[in-house]
Amino acid sequence: MYSHETSFRVRYAETDRMGYVYYGTYAQYFEVGRVEALRSLGFPYRRMEEQGVLLPVHDMQVEFRKPAFYDDLLTVRTSIVELPSVRIRFAYAVFNEARELITEAATTLVFIDRATNRPRRAPEELLRALVQFFK
Amino acid sequence: MYSHETSFRVRYAETDRMGYVYYGTYAQYFEVGRVEALRSLGFPYRRMEEQGVLLPVHDMQVEFRKPAFYDDLLTVRTSIVELPSVRIRFAYAVFNEARELITEAATTLVFIDRATNRPRRAPEELLRALVQFFK
Amino acid sequence: MYSHETSFRVRYAETDRMGYVYYGTYAQYFEVGRVEALRSLGFPYRRMEEQGVLLPVHDMQVEFRKPAFYDDLLTVRTSIVELPSVRIRFAYAVFNEARELITEAATTLVFIDRATNRPRRAPEELLRALVQFFK
Amino acid sequence: MYSHETSFRVRYAETDRMGYVYYGTYAQYFEVGRVEALRSLGFPYRRMEEQGVLLPVHDMQVEFRKPAFYDDLLTVRTSIVELPSVRIRFAYAVFNEARELITEAATTLVFIDRATNRPRRAPEELLRALVQFFK
Predict the structure, then answer these.
(1) Of D13, B107, C130, which is closest to residue A32 (Cα–Cα)?
(2) Residue C110 belongs to what H/E stretch?
(3) Looking at CA atoms only, how far is residue B26 from chain D in angstroms?
(4) Taking chain C, what is the end-to-end CA distance rounded to the nearest angstrom?
(5) What is the span of the domain harbouring residue B77?
(6) ipTM
(7) Does residue B11 carry a pLDDT above 90?
(8) What is the CATH number of the domain that holds C93?
(9) Domain total in chain D
């Protein structure tokens, strides 16, 4: 398994009138988590797109356990739990500053060849970077 | 079962550089769907809040089947599949103008008493409006 | 001068913990206003992009006079105050249900030829649709 | 004058199908800029709200000079150009990694007493932190 953590502050824009972070905002936090996880593997998502590979989200499951609030310094731990094939599965755990688990989630994304608009296998460069974590 | 449909156009802001509606945007579409479903029942969500009942989202499951694009006129069909207790479950189906099913989702929300910050039963007014659909 | 009005409801996502519509959300409302103004002229913005013309925003000025709130039914009146050249200027007035003026704004957008990435004149089709309003 | 710089990466969610950062997103970047500027003065915005002072935006002027793109590491330099009274004026300059100035903006915010919902003078604690920069 490969895991990576990244932290960021809740923006005022991301809260709603209940005073909580809006539930739809978390999708952005998961995006930040997986983008930074890929960067730390040496394979930025932007480079993948430049090589003609898109990675749209196929499905998402989220459980909201506790609210997050304005200006909270949140940490998202992003995990890749199995070697990707034509799909890649990310699991997310979001913690607040008291290290309480506030949200758990998972997403499946599909590697798409932009030229053909068809699914394809994960880029070799990504597999090579990941394989050491799955022995 | 109670179902309701509402339609809206995709905003430029809601797309991403892949040209698709950003996956996190759909949470707003589901919100629009359930808010309009409650309004059509004669019990606007805003009134519920004015009566001291909050309704945060507890969990969400989404399957993205096909992309949506800028300026698409989308329709979300929102269904309440069982009588609410302390929780209410909504199911969503999003269609494009060709009436293709592009996204399916479900969310669970919890009725919270704002004064005590504790879960509570669904408001009587909502149950009375819904009961005719569950005979 | 050409003016057009369109209405929409404030989403929960668009509010912030102050209970107001977040100030950055209005840019989306102005976008909805100008897109519907162009559609009512018979020249949808999407068609302009399909013809290879992009229309990025060059500048924006906003004055926030009164707050807007969750579930408000807002109306934006969008005006084109002069015939466009390589630029088009839109003025916006946002009203709440009590027809109070809550926000005034203006934006300048530039017509860009996607092939050359250079400014270009407004499409003839748009000018033809507009000219009758500027006699 | 007091100035402060803070940096962040462009999220995929913040781009649009033109491939640029959506023009409405910048309001969030300005928010991040002024919040971090206040934090660096030792007076976090959250504490101001806890003391019963709200700070809604009254007006905003933005000039978009160059586009920003996905994954760009942007820097916003936020300046307070005069001692606040019942209003506070922030100026913003956003730079890309090549240190090109891509966006310039300014906002005026008004100090509001939450209890009375009336304008009030800037908190003493903020004025004390700022006065050394305006001699």
Answers:
(1) D13
(2) strand C101-110
(3) 12
(4) 9
(5) 2-134
(6) 0.95
(7) yes
(8) 3.10.129.10
(9) 1
